[in-house]
Amino acid sequence: MIEMHDVYKVYGNGVKALNGVDMKIDQGEFVYVVGPSGSGKSTFIRLMYREEKPTHGVILINGVNVKRVRDWKIPYLRRNIGVVFQDYKLLPNMTAYENVAFAMEAVEAPKRKIRRRVQEVLELVGLHDRMSALPSQLSGGEQQRVSIARAMVNNPSFVIADEPTGNLDPENSWDIMYLLEEINAQGTTVVMATHNREIVNTMRKRVIAIEQGVVVRDEHQGEYGYED
Amino acid sequence: MKIETMFRHTREAFKSLKRNTWMTFAAVSAVAVTLLIFGIFLVFAFNISYMASELDKQVAIRISLSQTATNDDIDQLREKIENDSAVKSVDFIPKEDGLKRMKEQWGEDEKFLKGLENDNPLPDILEVQAKNPQQTESLANKLSKYNFVEHVDFGQGVTDRLLDLSGWVRNVVLIFGLGLAVLAAFLISNTIKLTIFARRREIEIMRLVGASNWFIRWPFFIEGGMIGVLGAIVPVTVVLLGYNAVIGILGAGEAYSFFKLLGMWPLSLYVAGITIILGVFIGVWGSLISIRKFLRI
Ligand SMILES: Nc1ncnc2c1ncn2[C@@H]1O[C@H](COP(=O)(O)OP(=O)(O)OP(=O)(O)O)[C@@H](O)[C@H]1O
Ligand SMILES: [Mg+2]
């Protein structure tokens, strides 16, 4: 469960990115975060995995106040949250397999477990036959699937994605969406910031709309609602 | 930490050392120069303190006699000491002579001592030389228990001066060495900075997936420590080989009156150990600078 109570975020340069956000996401939900460019979607996402701290207000992840978590404990908080970006953030000199395994090695998982689990998630994202390919040898859609596999490999309760389809053509975008839907169906909470009207309007999930740092709309089976 | 993880960190550190060959070389050289100076100093310091302790054993014992002792008492005491089998010679220095010596030493300030002739506060002295220099200390202890003996001292004058000199040398070397150590640490911090820069994507991902702060830091500390160890190897070798040659020429442990060198063992162990530890310390210190500045965790 993710809760925000009266959350404000003012960046060091004085930009007010969020201005009093209240919302709650339950375990197992699928949520789109939409809004015009610069409205604060990425800020909202970054607060969830504690890349940024709120200037004011309370953020609870599974009941834990992230502002109170000591710096050295933040990594343990993050192990429960998989993060996916528009630009995949894969390591270019590692194969698909190594990129995913890296996330388990970084949390000091035992070697035996790593091999089995990495193969399992690569199968989940449909890349078990491209395991030894470098990112440069993969299409954008495939790269994004590797990054989703990496986000999933440590079995997080949440997957948070900031415009995961932003660099993809419609066909690949849909593949990613089906994948996220399947992950969600297995019980993982998915939060996804997006500009993709077609996807939001077709999938009909919960939609949180942010404008100028404020939640202006929060609907189940919502619509995108903007003409970009 | 798991041994597997430690291997991984060490591998990463080695990779980085190879990746920044030239910076690594510069940093290792800086450490080497620092430690060479330090190593030479260390050998000197060990030897000076050894010589000082040897000198302590060789020089005369000065017995200050009680003011209440009569001439007969003194003669008896002197005879008793002369008959001791461990004693080579005994000299009597009356307090008048002591005052004269003091005047010679003080020169200009002699006037402070004027008038003391009539009421000389100095004690009479017996100067005792042991047959075997090694026994000076035990002999002194024995003599201190005799009647009319106020107190006993030996060796301080010469050895103190020797230790003063070594203290002075030490301060100069320490200041100079500290400057070099700072320079070496700075060069190490620069190589580590390059490594952090080269690995910034990996670091970003590690943080994202929840690697602990120590997991991220370790390879950089190991890299710094390895630069320190690599930087220690050459100076330790040079210093020990050089010292071995010096001993070969001058001879160790031979009882010249003053000049007596320590043997290779266990000196080489101390010098190697202390130098390598200092190298690691400089290396870790250098990494720490960059880790705090550029890793920000
Ligand atoms: N690190 C930062 N430092 C300062 N200002 C920032 C920072 N990140 C974002 N901002 C500012 O905060 C506001 C919200 O930015 P944010 O990235 O959250 O918007 P967004 O909704 O994700 O936009 P987009 O749809 O273009 O990705 C913007 O005005 C932006 O310029
Ligand atoms: Mg954004």
TrEMBL record, chain A:
<keyword id="KW-0067">ATP-binding</keyword>
<dbReference type="InterPro" id="IPR017871">
    <property type="entry name" value="ABC_transporter-like_CS"/>
</dbReference>
<comment type="subunit">
    <text>Homodimer. Forms a membrane-associated complex with FtsX.</text>
</comment>
<keyword id="KW-0813">Transport</keyword>
<keyword id="KW-1003">Cell membrane</keyword>
<keyword id="KW-0131">Cell cycle</keyword>
<dbReference type="InterPro" id="IPR027417">
    <property type="entry name" value="P-loop_NTPase"/>
</dbReference>
<keyword id="KW-0472">Membrane</keyword>
<dbReference type="InterPro" id="IPR003439">
    <property type="entry name" value="ABC_transporter-like_ATP-bd"/>
</dbReference>
<keyword id="KW-0547">Nucleotide-binding</keyword>
<dbReference type="GO" id="GO:0016887">
    <property type="term" value="F:ATP hydrolysis activity"/>
</dbReference>
<dbReference type="GO" id="GO:0005886">
    <property type="term" value="C:plasma membrane"/>
</dbReference>
<dbReference type="GO" id="GO:0022857">
    <property type="term" value="F:transmembrane transporter activity"/>
</dbReference>
<dbReference type="Pfam" id="PF00005">
    <property type="entry name" value="ABC_tran"/>
</dbReference>
<comment type="similarity">
    <text>Belongs to the ABC transporter superfamily.</text>
</comment>
<protein>
    <recommendedName>
        <fullName>Cell division ATP-binding protein FtsE</fullName>
    </recommendedName>
</protein>
<feature type="domain" description="ABC transporter">
    <location>
        <begin position="2"/>
        <end position="227"/>
    </location>
</feature>
<comment type="function">
    <text>Part of the ABC transporter FtsEX involved in cellular division.</text>
</comment>
<dbReference type="InterPro" id="IPR015854">
    <property type="entry name" value="ABC_transpr_LolD-like"/>
</dbReference>
<dbReference type="InterPro" id="IPR003593">
    <property type="entry name" value="AAA+_ATPase"/>
</dbReference>
<dbReference type="InterPro" id="IPR005286">
    <property type="entry name" value="Cell_div_FtsE"/>
</dbReference>
<dbReference type="GO" id="GO:0051301">
    <property type="term" value="P:cell division"/>
</dbReference>
From TrEMBL, chain B:
<protein>
    <recommendedName>
        <fullName>Cell division protein FtsX</fullName>
    </recommendedName>
</protein>
<dbReference type="InterPro" id="IPR004513">
    <property type="entry name" value="FtsX"/>
</dbReference>
<dbReference type="InterPro" id="IPR003838">
    <property type="entry name" value="ABC3_permease_C"/>
</dbReference>
<keyword id="KW-1133">Transmembrane helix</keyword>
<keyword id="KW-0812">Transmembrane</keyword>
<dbReference type="InterPro" id="IPR058204">
    <property type="entry name" value="FtsX_firmicutes-type"/>
</dbReference>
<comment type="similarity">
    <text>Belongs to the ABC-4 integral membrane protein family. FtsX subfamily.</text>
</comment>
<feature type="transmembrane region" description="Helical">
    <location>
        <begin position="172"/>
        <end position="197"/>
    </location>
</feature>
<dbReference type="GO" id="GO:0005886">
    <property type="term" value="C:plasma membrane"/>
</dbReference>
<dbReference type="GO" id="GO:0051301">
    <property type="term" value="P:cell division"/>
</dbReference>
<feature type="transmembrane region" description="Helical">
    <location>
        <begin position="21"/>
        <end position="46"/>
    </location>
</feature>
<feature type="domain" description="FtsX extracellular">
    <location>
        <begin position="59"/>
        <end position="152"/>
    </location>
</feature>
<keyword id="KW-0472">Membrane</keyword>
<dbReference type="Pfam" id="PF18075">
    <property type="entry name" value="FtsX_ECD"/>
</dbReference>
<feature type="transmembrane region" description="Helical">
    <location>
        <begin position="267"/>
        <end position="291"/>
    </location>
</feature>
<dbReference type="InterPro" id="IPR040690">
    <property type="entry name" value="FtsX_ECD"/>
</dbReference>
<keyword id="KW-0132">Cell division</keyword>
<keyword id="KW-0131">Cell cycle</keyword>
<dbReference type="Pfam" id="PF02687">
    <property type="entry name" value="FtsX"/>
</dbReference>
<feature type="domain" description="ABC3 transporter permease C-terminal">
    <location>
        <begin position="175"/>
        <end position="296"/>
    </location>
</feature>
<feature type="transmembrane region" description="Helical">
    <location>
        <begin position="218"/>
        <end position="247"/>
    </location>
</feature>
<keyword id="KW-1003">Cell membrane</keyword>
